[in-house]
Amino acid sequence: MNRHIKFGLPLLLSLMLIVIIFSLINHPTQKAIQTLQDTATPPIKKIHQRQVDTKLGDKIVKKLEKKHGDLLYEEIDSLTAPFSQKEVDILTYEIKDEQIHMIKSSKKRAHQNIIENKQKQHELWKRFANLIPSENRKMVAYFKIFTDGEDNTLGYVQQMDYPDKWTLALDYRDVKNLNGLYATILHEYGHLFSLNSFEYSHDNVCKTYDPGEGCLKQDAYLYHFYQQFWQYDVMQHWKQLKNIETDPTVQTHFYTLHADEFVTEYATSHPTEDFAESFMYFILSTKPSSHTRADEKVLFFYQYPELAQLRNEILMNLEKYYP
Ligand SMILES: [Zn+2]
């Protein structure tokens, strides 16, 4: 199951180019970005010193596991999965007032059944929208339905031309595997709340960590995670391995050398993926009682009362919409 963030250097370079060209022909762009950031609120408001009942979430996890089996069970692992077919974008929507509004549609006959089925399109969006409370997902400005065949990539997120606008994309052919789809949605949400514009500083010299998209703030969740689990030794070893970000065999190799340090093999591919995978485990498994490094990565999220509270809310939604 390949969950990834589609946001690499080529896109960044092309975005920079677009911004430069745009600012030449349309000077107020920079100001527009600034205004957008000023008026928007962070997706997760930090709260302090509040006791959150984490047993509530654990109870729901156990209940859901009884009905649906292991919520984190991966049917296909990336090594045995057939090579992914070419990815096809089918439908793109803008999100307005909680609803999806179509702005682009493919004409391909092969996908006619989803193109004509408005209810199914709406259902797919609702898998995400019903799970994540609306005030926590305002950065999702676009929704996309795509496919690359069954399994392979179930979903991804992509940053748009404004730094605080993102696209969420889901593969409509993978909805049969609902455990996998919900796990993927939570993995993607792990990216959305840790890589949104509020987590970055505008310092010219980065003294924290730049995961590839910019310099993280001192109090960014992802920076804390990086400091605790990646900085120094792990990072040094990781950097020596060529293609670890894309090659599952290299990830397996790294995983076997650090087996109790990662929740999945895919988590070894990048610190941001480790964060997203550990977040997915934080939501969909009971609070760990042992203290391996992998457990500590899951326990990491419990130290933030706002995230422990969000976990309860998400799990209550899951119980309601995935009976
Ligand atoms: Zn990812």
> End-to-end span in angstroms?
24 Å
Number of strands: 6
Strand content: 5-15%
Low-confidence stretches: 7-13, 19-39, 75-83
The portion of residues assigned to helices is 40-55%
Biggest β-sheet: count, sense, barrel?
A: 6 strands, mixed
Ligand species: zinc ion
Structural class by helix and strand composition: alpha/beta
Number of domains: 1
Strand neighbour order, sheet with most strands: 1-5-6-4-2-3
Q: What's the pLDDT, averaged over the residues? A: 86
Radius of gyration: 20 Å
Oligomer: single chain
Keywords: Membrane, Transmembrane, Transmembrane helix
Transmembrane segments: 7-25
Secondary structure blueprint with pairings:
Blueprint: E1 2-5, H1 9-25, H2 29-39, H3 54-68, E2 88-96, E3 99-105, H4 112-115, H5 118-129, E4 140-147, E5 153-159, E6 166-171, H6 178-194, H7 221-229, H8 233-240, H9 248-257, H10 271-284, H11 293-299, H12 305-321
Parallel strand pairs: 1-5, 4-6
Antiparallel strand pairs: 2-3, 2-4, 5-6
Helix pairs in contact: 3-12, 6-10, 10-11
The protein binds zinc ion.
